[in-house]
Amino acid sequence: MLEIKNVSKNYGRKAALRDVSLSLPRGQLVGLFGENGAGKTTLMKCILGFVRYYGTITLDGEPIGRRNISRIAFATSEHSFFPDLSPLGHAQFYADHFPTFSRKRFDVLMDFFELPLSVASRKLSTGQKNQFEAVLALSQGADYILMDEPFGGNDVFNREDFYKVLLGILGENETVLLSTHLIEEVSGFIGRAVLIHQGRITGDVSMSDLDERGESLIDYVKSAWNYRADRIKKAIDELDEGAE
Asked: pLDDT, tens digit, for every residue of 12-25?
């Protein structure tokens, strides 16, 4: 179990996270949704220990550190691989440093995405780099896989194929925390939705509960965020008045 308890993080005077508590059991595919600046990336960086924070984050009751950090993988569109090392070189590096690295999964996913094996990673296109980052995270053999907007530069068909293959390859004890703005696109693939707004958790619901209530994920998100559709008309009316 990954446990986040009363976590807060400030950047100067700006509060990025405000008393966030969240439990992530093994074997879930969780969507993390929030507007730009809501705190999604900061939350993941806190879990990984990239930034200092107030509160506690534990993995099976232990603080996350050198002994257990390999149980968490991270994929980001900012790219964290070695730019001059080929994908094959990365596979060897991961095999040397992560005993649970799955070379079979790596090979299957590289073939699925039709990614080259022997060129420097920096020569991949933006979409290919994002796919390669996801391949490494999913092949590491981690129990928890954090994915922060991993689909930038990928077309809608590649993204849909990825969701389907993700469902097909994940083991019953693997958990994915997927941060994305593509709410409607991923609603049919996730099992749970966590909403974060202005640094606070504002919603946490299973997709099965939404189905029972006959409520769509996007409507649930709009309700939790107090989305006001009338502001669009108001802005247009004000522009029209100014043009008269």
From this structure: 999 999 999 999 99
Q: State the Cα angle at 158 between 44 and 86, rounded to 5°.
A: 70
72 φ/ψ angles, rounded to the nearest 5 degrees: -120, 130
Assess if CATH 3.40.190.10 describes domain 2-231.
Answer: no
Helices marked H in 170-229 — which ranges? 183-186, 207-213, 217-224
The count of other CB atoms within 10 Å of the CB of residue 61 is 7
* Cα dihedral 169, 175, 180, 185 sign: positive
Q: Under the phi-then-psi rule, with left for phi > 0, alpha for psi from -120 to 50, and beta for the rest, what region is 32?
A: beta
The domain segmentation of the chain, as residue ranges, is 2-231
Query: SS3 for 237?
Result: helix
Give CA–CA dist 44/24, Å, rounded.
13
β 54-59/200-206 pair status:
unpaired
Task: State how far the Cα of 44 lies from the Cα of 42, in Å rounded to an integer.
Answer: 5
| 3-state secondary structure at position 61 | coil
Q: Cα dist. 3→60, 110, 145, 178 in Å?
A: 8, 32, 15, 17
Tell me the pLDDT tens digit for each residue of 170-205.
989 999 999 988 888 899 899 999 999 999 999 999
Q: What is the reported pTM?
A: 0.89
